[in-house]
């Protein structure tokens, strides 16, 4: 036996055993090495390599949710401060200077004519024309002139003080201070007083409704407003603004709703809340539209199913003159108008419309508007009005 061959075989076998053990030994995990700084080709991983690794890891992880910025929180709207309007008493006195400015041409012209050295037929004709120009009306102007001629003839002398007093007495007599100008707004037991405000477009009807609410609140009354003008989109919003200032709730519905149903709900709200007065603002309808005038009568009938209507106030624009008088006649035929609100009286010298409209309708002027301020609506007083017209200072 060849021992040399055996030795070689054993040596080869030992090498195989040792090599196999080495090959199947598990490899120790290597710690990741930080990338080396530098550009591409410097070290094992440059900046581009790091970017690639980051992009690969981001792709494997999926999209990352990004929190959206929180919407800014708006502060709640500031509450409208409740105002305390001045009472109705003395309002016309406070506004007399404004009235005197607008009627100065009317009053001053009459006083100058009456104080002239000669009062012949031409002078009396001119006095009558001045009265007619101021919208006093032909019949009333003739009566005033006749009364003045008689008094001047009896009196004999015509000092400025005497002339002024003569004219004052004649104008007051024509305006008729004996008419009851009380605006009926008080409750009837548990039922509120109900006031309807009517008139054509552009006379200041909705504004008058809001100002009347201020007058009543200033006198200590509680009020609910009914936005029954559902044809004009801005009317209800306008009324909301007026009501919010004095704490008066507004009953309203969508544009185009039945005005009678709004009026009915407003009175129901007044009954439920136990308020003193409900004021209903109706649509500004053209007096030539017969159907719309009939609808106004419907509103009144529906309201009366719950409570009587105490006042139907017709709002007239003093600057429209004879056209305003025609409007008054048509409204008086549609509903029982109980009082006139004459707006924009500070913007015209034709204050004689007060005399004419009362004579034609037999309805008193109860309120006058003398400006655009919130408290420029005043109860009408015949003597205060005439004194303002004839004011000389």
From TrEMBL:
Enzyme Commission number(s) from the entry:
3.6.5.4
Annotated positions binding GTP: 199-206, 281-285, 343-346
Major place of residence: membrane
GO BP term, example = SRP-dependent cotranslational protein targeting to membrane
Q: Which PROSITE patterns match?
A: SRP54
Where in this chain does the record put each SRP54-type proteins GTP-binding domain?
364-377
Q: How does it sit in the membrane?
A: Peripheral membrane protein
Q: Where is this protein found?
A: Cell membrane; Cytoplasm
Q: Indicate yes or no for the key word Aminoacyl-tRNA synthetase.
A: no
User: What Gene3D superfamilies is this protein classified in?
Assistant: P-loop containing nucleotide triphosphate hydrolases, Signal recognition particle SRP54, nucleotide-binding domain
According to the UniProt entry, which residue ranges have a biased composition of type Low complexity? 61-71
Q: Name the GO cellular-component terms.
A: cytoplasm; plasma membrane
- Pfam families, alphabetically? SRP54 (PF00448), SRP54_N (PF02881)
State which residue ranges cross the membrane: 6-24
Report a single Gene Ontology molecular function: GTPase activity
Which keywords are on file for this protein? Answer: Cell membrane, Cytoplasm, GTP-binding, Hydrolase, Membrane, Nucleotide-binding, Receptor, Transmembrane, Transmembrane helix
Map out region (Disordered) in residue numbers. Answer: 27-72
Q: Which reaction does it catalyse?
A: GTP + H2O = GDP + phosphate + H(+)
Cross-referenced InterPro entries: AAA+_ATPase, P-loop_NTPase, Signal_recog_particl_SRP54_hlx, SR_rcpt_FtsY, SRP/SRP_N, SRP54_GTPase_dom, SRP54_N_sf
Record's subunit section: Part of the signal recognition particle protein translocation system, which is composed of SRP and FtsY.
Q: What family does this chain come from, according to its entry?
A: Belongs to the GTP-binding SRP family. FtsY subfamily.
Function statement:
Involved in targeting and insertion of nascent membrane proteins into the cytoplasmic membrane. Acts as a receptor for the complex formed by the signal recognition particle (SRP) and the ribosome-nascent chain (RNC).
| Xref: HAMAP family | FtsY (MF_00920)
NCBIfam families (UniProt xref): ftsY (TIGR00064)
Recorded protein name is Signal recognition particle receptor FtsY
**What gene codes for this chain?**
ftsY
């Amino acid at each position: 036996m060849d021992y040399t061959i055996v030795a070689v075989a054993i040596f080869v076998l030992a090498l195989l055993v040792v090599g196999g053990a080495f090959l199947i030994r598990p490899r120790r995990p290597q710690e990741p090495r930080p990338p080396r700084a530098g550009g591409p080709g410097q070290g094992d991983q440059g900046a581009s390599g790091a970017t690639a690794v980051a992009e690969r890891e981001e792709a494997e992880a999926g999209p990352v949710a990004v929190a959206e910025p929180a919407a800014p929180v708006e502060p709640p709207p500031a509450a409208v401060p409740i105002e305390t309007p001045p009472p109705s008493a003395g309002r016309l006195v406070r506004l007399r200077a404004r009235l005197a400015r607008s009627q100065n041409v009317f009053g001053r012209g009459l006083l100058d004519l009456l104080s002239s050295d000669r009062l012949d037929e031409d002078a009396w004709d001119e006095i009558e024309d001045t009265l007619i120009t101021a919208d006093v009306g032909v019949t009333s102007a003739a009566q005033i002139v006749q009364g003045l001629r008689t008094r001047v003839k009896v009196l004999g002398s015509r000092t400025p003080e005497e002339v002024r007093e003569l004219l004052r007495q004649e104008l007051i007599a024509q305006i008729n201070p004996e008419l009851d100008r009380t605006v009926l707004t008080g409750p009837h037991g548990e039922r509120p007083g109900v006031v309807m405000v009517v008139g054509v477009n552009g006379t200041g009807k909705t504004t008058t409704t809001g100002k009347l609410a201020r007058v009543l609140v200033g006198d200590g009354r509680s009020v609910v407003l009914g936005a029954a003008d559902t044809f004009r989109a801005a009317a209800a919003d306008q009324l909301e603004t007026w009501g919010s200032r004095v704490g008066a709730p507004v009953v309203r519905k969508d544009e185009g709703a039945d005005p009678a149903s709004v009026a009915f709900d407003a009175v129901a709200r007044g009954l439920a809340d136990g308020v003193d007065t409900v004021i209903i603002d109706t649509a500004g309808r053209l007096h030539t539209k017969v159907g719309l005038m009939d609808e106004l009568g419907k509103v009144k009938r529906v309201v009366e199913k719950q409570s009587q209507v105490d006042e139907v106030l017709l709002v007239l624009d003093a600057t429209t003159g004879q056209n305003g008088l025609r409007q008054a006649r048509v409204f008086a035929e549609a509903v029982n108008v109980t009082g006139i609100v004459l707006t924009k009286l500070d913007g015209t010298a034709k204050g004689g419309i007060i005399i004419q409209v009362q004579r034609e309708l037999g309805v008193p002027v109860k309120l006058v508007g003398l400006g655009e301020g919130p408290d420029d609506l005043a109860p009408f007083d015949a003597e205060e009005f005439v004194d303002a017209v004839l004011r000389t200072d």
